[in-house]
Structures are given as C-alpha cells and as structure tokens.
Amino acid sequence: MTLPEFGGPEALRWADVPDPVPGEGEVLVDVAATAVNRADLLQRQGRYSPKPGVSPYPGLECSGRIAALGPGVSGWAVGDEVCALLAGGGYAEKVAVPFGQLLPVPEGVDLVTAAGLPEVAATVWSNVFLVAHLRPGETLLVHGGASGIGTMAIQLGKAVGARVAVTAGSAQKLARCAELGADVLVDYREQDFVEVVREATGGAGADVILDIMGAKYLQRNVDALAVNGRLVVIGLQGGTKAEVDLSAMLAKRAALVATNLRGRPLGEKAAIVAAVREHVWPLIEAGVVRPVVDRVLPVTEAAEAHRVIESGAQVGKVLLEVPGAAR
Ligand SMILES: NC(=O)c1ccc[n+]([C@@H]2O[C@H](COP(=O)([O-])OP(=O)(O)OC[C@H]3O[C@@H](n4cnc5c(N)ncnc54)[C@H](OP(=O)(O)O)[C@@H]3O)[C@@H](O)[C@H]2O)c1
Q: CA 27, 304, 151: angle at the middle one, nearest 5?
C-alpha cells in the first residue's frame, strides 16, 4: 500500500512496487495479514515518518509465511508460519523482516488473527512489565481500555494477578473491558478517573499507569499514582506539552517514563520480542490471553480501516487480510 502523498484515508493507494529483498539477518515474508495501528494514521497524515532505510509503506506488524532467507539467518526456515513486529511495510504482499522480530504463530491462533498480536504484545510487555515492573496485587490503570493496546494490557495485567482499572468513552466499551477482566471501570466522559481510582484503592492510587493521552492527562495521572507509582506514557493523543507539579511526584517518589517501540534499535526490539515469546505466548496458547479482533478487511480497503479507527468505533484490533494468502 503506497502513500504517494500525505492526507486523509484516500491517500492510501494499492499499487505494484518492486518486491523487497531480504538483507543480512532478514527474511522475506509472504504476508497473510497485517493490522492497523494508530501510528499508521499519523504516518498517512505526514506526522510520523519512518526512519531512513525503513520501508516507506505503512504497517508495523504482519503474519504470513517465510518465503526466503537472507544471509545470516538462523532458527527459521522457508515455509514457517510467523508473525512479526515491523518498522514499516506491512500493508503489502511481501515484507522483509529482521529475524529477531519474528515470532511463531501461537498454537490455537489462526494465521490472520496472529497479525494483530506482535505490536500490542511487545508494547504492553515492554512498558508494563520491563519498564514499570507491575507486580501481583498491584493496581494497573489502563487508559483507553478498549483500544488494541488496552485489550492486551487488561488481560496481561489480570494474568499476573494485578487489579486492573480502565478508562473508556462509552458504556459499551467499558462492558467489553469488564468481559476481558477489568475490575474498575471509568467512563472518562462522565467520571473523574482520579477520584474513581483513589476510591477503588482505599485512597492509595494506581501503582502503574499505562497512558496514551500525554499532556491532557499528565497532572491527573500524577494525582492518580500511588506512592512509588510508575507512569508510562506511550501515546500523545491529548498533546505533547504540559506542566506538572513535581512536588506531587517527589512526595510519591513517582517515576515518569515515555517510550516508543518503533524507533528502538534492532537489538532492543529483538530482546523485547524474545521476552514476549517467553512470557506472553504461553498465556495465549493456554487461552488465558485472547486476541481481540474488531474486524478483518481486505488490505486493498485499508482506507476504510483507517476511517473505522478514526471514528473510534473499534474494540481491539482492525486487521487487513491479503486476499487468498492465508490458505
Ligand atoms: N509508544 C509506543 O511504542 C506505542 C505502540 C503502540 C501504540 N501506542 C499508542 O497507544 C495508543 C493506543 O494504540 P492503538 O493502536 O491500540 O489505538 P486504538 O485502538 O485506535 O485506540 C485509541 C484509544 O484511545 C481512546 N481514547 C480517546 N480519547 C481518550 C480519553 N480522553 N481517555 C481515555 N482514552 C481515550 C479511545 O477510546 P474511546 O473510544 O473509549 O474514547 C481508543 O480506544 C495510541 O495512542 C498509540 O499511538 C504507542
């Protein structure tokens, strides 16, 4: 899927382009499906350009079959069914992937559904567990509980024995979060999440907050944190610049971290993917954590998928299937 110029969903164009060639340490994957991430919308609008040397086409994850191995690849074979974290290029029939970013398709998950797992699993595992060290018995607050990220964060939080609070903008979305295990539900249009989370924790607050709003929620997130709380900002949907009262953070001995996955060096991505394979994949294979798919559209209708995400109608992931490829 090419992007001849930045713009609205109609800027996405399905066109013939040369096949990627796998370089040192890369495999070529015949794509069965990819998934839409919010970052793809920003890329389409010209607000999140891929780094030099990375595919200019959108798509941060995919599933498919290995079609060819580049030099220096070990542990994978042509024909293997895989899913992968990508730096770009997933909205396509073929993509080249560093082999450290490959994962096997989890047992019990079909090839198309697997396309929506790498980005959410890697983002949630790296931030909630490797950065914020969520522990059993702690409270995790997940903003946007019905998002792709949120639906994975709820399930992983519950799987390790944490208490999970979520925010969402409708009763229907909160009901879906509750089905996934969320214990505390906050309708951010009608309730103040600081008050609800404090009340639900006997005044203590949340030990870990996974934030996607950035500036808009910064001070309120600090207010909602418990002593020794960890606030991890991964999205900036509510702006990039805000003031924060550091005395409130100091008194709580609170930590604030902001991260992104896409820009990390290959070695860091490979380490995160290895941790996901070790810790998250067994939970998926045991049925404790389930992929949450809102809908599957043909990849040629990526523009429609972007409209769905922009409307905010989805719960979980919107997948894009390459017609005929999964068979
Ligand atoms: N840093 C990283 O490495 C990284 C990686 C992946 C994703 N992300 C970020 O994580 C976020 C989720 O990604 P996604 O692909 O899962 O997106 P998504 O499915 O499009 O979800 C976006 C969510 O934002 C929620 N939202 C909007 N306004 C809100 C508010 N005021 N309070 C709480 N929630 C609100 C929406 O919920 P309602 O409809 O209920 O309002 C929606 O569920 C995005 O901001 C994305 O950029 C970051």
A: 70
- 68 three-class SS: strand
Give yes or no for a contact between 291 and 265, defined as CB atoms under 8 angstroms apart. Answer: no
Token look-up 């925010």 returns: 167
Tokens matching residue 288:
């404790």
Q: Could you tell me the distance, in angstroms and rounded to a whole number, from the CA of residue 18 to the centre of ligand 1? A: 33
Ligand 1 centroid, distance to 147 Cα (angstroms): 6
The protein residue whose alpha carbon is closest to atom 2 in ligand 1 is: 260
Atom number, ligand 1, closest to the C-alpha of residue 234 = 1
Task: Give nearest CA residue, ligand 1 atom 22.
Answer: 147
The protein residue whose alpha carbon is closest to atom 26 in ligand 1 is 144
Domains of the chain by range and CATH? Answer: 9-117+289-321 (3.90.180.10), 121-258 (3.40.50.720)
Predicted confidence pLDDT, tens digits, the chain (327 residues): 888 889 999 999 999 999 999 999 999 999 999 999 999 999 999 988 888 888 999 999 999 999 999 999 999 999 999 999 999 999 999 999 999 999 999 999 999 999 999 999 999 999 999 999 999 999 999 999 999 999 999 999 999 999 999 999 999 999 999 999 999 999 999 999 999 999 999 999 999 999 999 999 999 999 999 999 999 999 999 999 999 999 999 999 999 999 999 889 999 999 999 999 999 999 999 999 999 999 999 999 999 999 999 999 999 999 999 988 866
Q: What is the CA(77)–ligand 1 centre distance, in A?
A: 35
What is the rounded distance in angstroms from the CA atom of residue 308 to the CA atom of residue 187?
A: 21
